[in-house]
């Protein structure tokens, strides 16, 4: 009996996730050895970046752009499409191969002046291919839950037109690679892991596609996002409306459940009820409000085998694995937390491997993998210190990172031992810089202690990534700014991180005891059938009118150019790699390539390149006045802010009748489009300055050619370098790296 496990788009392309490897390893230990793993997330992305496929995509987009530019009137959705297709106009798809090479090459990867443009090219491409689906549907390597469609709406998740369109950027891969592979192998079971909500529409598309051609194939869904759908769906009887082409779904921990299903299939038995499994009603079992939940004895789990992941395809120079030596959280008190199948506490029950098992697993894994992230809610301090000592004693050569609590336990000496064992970076949920809010969260920490602890880690040479949020119930603007000020005042003791925004979910203590936290009117959003997030009203605190002050304060904390999965994203593989090489001085390395002013003083003939393109506008429709990604986000958020979640039909209905007619515009209007896809409607003089560097020029060339004063040139040059409009690296269409050093 053959089984295929797949990981669907769209998520991190820099490493494989560990869920399928854990499931496969456990099944093998129980005698099911004929299991293949296929990472369709990375394979589908690579397929779009092949020269012939990318050329086909660009030609199709160009044809559609010309049509829209010449149309007599545009609705708001067409405006958005024209905006994205205009930005794609001069994209050079031949640069993709060079960008991939930079990210996979061990030497080039660590040259940030090469790394940054490579990431910008890949990121721009991901934005461009959204034109095959809903324009702008991807936010990096994710899908916003509320965009052209609503991932919390059963109507949208069961709307085949919506699912097909969302998945259309990868339809060539599905038809020409995935289905051909599936058709050529005699699989009995197809398992699809859905870790993130963003993967859900792609997983549903694949299950629909496969079931039509192979109705006899047993299709299983599992993963965190599937468990969350079950956990948060308002009417559980409607669960299989979403998963109509799925035979069974595992919710919670899946090892035993998966083996139970495989046993049924192997023995030609009907799928039978078992813990953590929901069976499609066609098997004669009613979908109940509650099902038996089993938590694994994790000490009995085998060492995970990651060898079936396609390591040569990931956009990284090294393999990076996720290893889970514990499940649940030993603290398990935070009032905002709601993670896992937790029924009476913030997380699922706390369990941890024995020290001997962790050491033995690491001894085996370190033979093939140097970079290991302990993918857990949090690791217990005493165990972690003992583990560090054993790693040192046994000479296990790894680099590792983990999320930990900021306990007083972590002295400089103990942090130093972690560093000696290979710890390169940690992430910490400090949550807030205000003690009253920390107490309300029940974090169990003191802000002064947090300050000392992150200092100890930094002094030991371990990068500290800080995670917190604003907007917790009862928080005032002053409370929120305490968090901003804390991070700013201690900015030398953390590398990356920042402040998000509080989101209320129904399993959190806050939602269960709203009066204790000064909130009322707690309810699901109108239109959301899956109450992943809850709407509420503050009765105490709040600062809507002063939101801009806080937004500006948060922005001042930003040290990174990119979010996950790139360097700067908390706990991303690339961030760990850079921490390993550059340590706590990582920020200096990121800033260094932009210091062209100092370089010019020492090397006045340094060639500088334009990091983007000066591009002609659209005759009939001024580009900077088109409905764009920001306009669309404001439109959707206006309804969310009032407790309403729109579905795709409602969004379309509100936007298709809002028409834009051609305007008189200057045919010579130009814009600067940076390589990361950001548009800048600069004055003519600034555009003339930037365009001069298009094919590579020196500052001396500009002074000798342009009719600008030296003071003007130096001012524009410094501004352009600071905003990454100019760089001394260019990835050109001949796939060569042009570097002025």
Short précis:
The chain is of the alpha/beta class and 741 residues long.
Straight-line N-to-C gap: 58 Å
Count of alpha/pi helices: 30
Strand content: 5-15%
Spatial order of strands in the largest sheet: 2-1-4-5-6-7
Radius of gyration: 26 Å
Which segments are poorly predicted (pLDDT under 50) over 5 or more consecutive residues?
none
Give the % helix.
40-55%
The total beta strand count reads 25
What would the principal axes of the Cα set say about the shape?
A: globular
Mean pLDDT: 93
Provide the domain count: 3
Biggest beta sheet attributes: 6 strands, mixed
Q: Structural class from helices and strands?
A: alpha/beta
Please, could you describe this protein's structure?
The model has no long low-confidence stretch (mean pLDDT 93). Helix 11 links the parallel strand 4 and strand 5 (218-222). This protein is 40% helix and 14% strand. The strands form 8 sheets. A 6-stranded mixed β-sheet has the order 2-1-4-5-6-7, sandwiched between helices. A 6-stranded parallel β-sheet has the order 8-11-12-13-14-15, sandwiched between helices. It contains 30 helices and 25 strands. The termini are far apart. The protein has 741 residues and is an alpha/beta fold. The protein folds into 3 domains: 2-283, no CATH class; 318-584, pyruvate-formate lyase- activating enzyme, CATH 3.80.30; 590-739, no CATH class. The longest helix has 19 residues, at 51-69. The chain is globular and about 80 Å long.
């Amino acid at each position: 009996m053959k089984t295929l496990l797949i990981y669907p788009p769209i998520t991190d392309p820099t490493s494989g996730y560990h869920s399928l490897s854990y499931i496969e390893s456990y099944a093998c230990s129980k005698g099911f050895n004929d299991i293949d793993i296929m990472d369709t997330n990375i394979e589908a992305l690579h397929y779009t970046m092949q020269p012939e496929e990318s050329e086909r995509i660009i030609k199709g987009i160009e044809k559609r752009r010309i049509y829209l530019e010449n149309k007599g009137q545009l609705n708001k959705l067409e405006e958005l499409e024209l905006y994205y297709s205009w930005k794609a106009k001069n994209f050079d798809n031949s640069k993709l191969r060079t960008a991939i090479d930079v990210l996979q090459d061990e030497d080039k990867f660590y040259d940030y002046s090469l790394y940054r443009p490579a990431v910008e090219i890949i990121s721009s491409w991901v934005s461009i291919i959204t034109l095959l689906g809903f324009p702008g549907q991807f936010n990096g390597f994710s899908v916003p839950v509320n965009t052209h469609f609503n991932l919390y709406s059963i109507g949208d998740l069961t709307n085949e037109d919506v699912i097909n369109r969302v998945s259309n950027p990868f339809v060539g891969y599905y038809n020409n690679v995935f289905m051909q592979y599936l058709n050529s192998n005699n699989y009995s079971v197809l398992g699809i892991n859905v870790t993130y909500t963003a993967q859900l529409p792609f997983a549903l598309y694949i299950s629909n596609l496969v079931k039509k051609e192979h109705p006899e194939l047993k299709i299983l869904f599992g993963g965190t996002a599937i468990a969350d759908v079950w956990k948060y769906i308002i009417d559980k009887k409607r669960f299989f409306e979403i998963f109509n082409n799925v035979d069974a779904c595992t919710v919670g921990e899946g090892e035993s459940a998966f083996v139970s299903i495989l046993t049924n299939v192997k023995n030609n038995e009907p799928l039978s009820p078992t813990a953590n499994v929901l069976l499609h009603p066609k098997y004669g079992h009613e979908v109940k409000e509650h099902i038996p939940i089993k938590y694994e004895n994790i000490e009995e789990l085998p060492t995970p085998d990651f060898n079936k992941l396609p390591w040569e395809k990931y956009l990284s120079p090294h393999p990076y694995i996720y290893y889970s030596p514990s499940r649940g959280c030993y603290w398990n008190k935070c009032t905002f937390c709601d993670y896992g199948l937790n029924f009476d506490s913030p997380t699922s029950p706390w369990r941890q491997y024995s020290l001997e098992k962790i050491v033995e697993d690491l001894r085996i894994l370190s033979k093939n993998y140097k970079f290991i992230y302990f993918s857990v809610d949090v690791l217990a301090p005493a165990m972690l210190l003992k583990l560090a000592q054993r790693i040192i004693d046994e000479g296990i050569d790894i680099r590792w990172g983990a999320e930990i609590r900021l306990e007083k336990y972590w002295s400089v000496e103990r942090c130093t031992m972690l560093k000696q064992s290979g710890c390169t970076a940690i992430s910490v949920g400090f949550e807030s810089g205000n003690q009253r809010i920390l107490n309300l969260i029940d974090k169990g920490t003191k802000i002064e202690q947090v300050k000392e602890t992150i200092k100890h880690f930094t002094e030991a040479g371990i990068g500290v990534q800080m995670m917190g949020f604003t907007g917790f119930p009862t928080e005032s603007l002053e409370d929120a700014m305490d968090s901003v000020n804390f991070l700013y005042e201690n900015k030398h003791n953390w590398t990356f991180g920042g402040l998000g925004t509080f989101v209320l979910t129904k399993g959190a203590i806050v939602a269960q005891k709203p009066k204790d936290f000064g909130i009322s009117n707690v309810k699901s959003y109108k239109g959301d059938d899956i109450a992943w997030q809850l709407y509420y009203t503050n009765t105490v605190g709040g600062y809507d009118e002063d939101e801009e002050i806080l937004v500006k304060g948060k922005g001042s904390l930003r040290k990174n150019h990119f979010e996950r999965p790139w360097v700067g994203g908390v706990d991303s593989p690339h961030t760990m790699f850079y921490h390993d090489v550059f340590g706590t001085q990582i920020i200096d390395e990121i800033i260094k390539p932009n210091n062209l002013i100092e370089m010019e003083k020492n090397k006045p003939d340094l060639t500088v390149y334009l990091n983007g393109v000066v591009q002609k506008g659209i005759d009939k429709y001024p580009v900077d006045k088109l409905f764009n990604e920001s306009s669309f986000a404001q439109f959707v958020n206006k309804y969310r802010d009032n407790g309403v979640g729109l579905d795709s039909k409602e969004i379309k209905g509100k936007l298709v009748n809002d028409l834009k007619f051609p305007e008189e515009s200057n045919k010579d209007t130009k814009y600067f489009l940076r390589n990361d896809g950001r548009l800048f409607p600069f004055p003519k003089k600034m555009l003339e300055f930037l365009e001069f560097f298009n094919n590579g020029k020196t500052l001396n060339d500009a002074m000798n050619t342009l009719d600008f004063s030296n003071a003007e040139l130096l001012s524009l040059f410094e501004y352009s370098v600071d905003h990454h409009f100019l760089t001394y690296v260019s990835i050109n269409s001949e796939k060569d790296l042009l570097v002025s050093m």
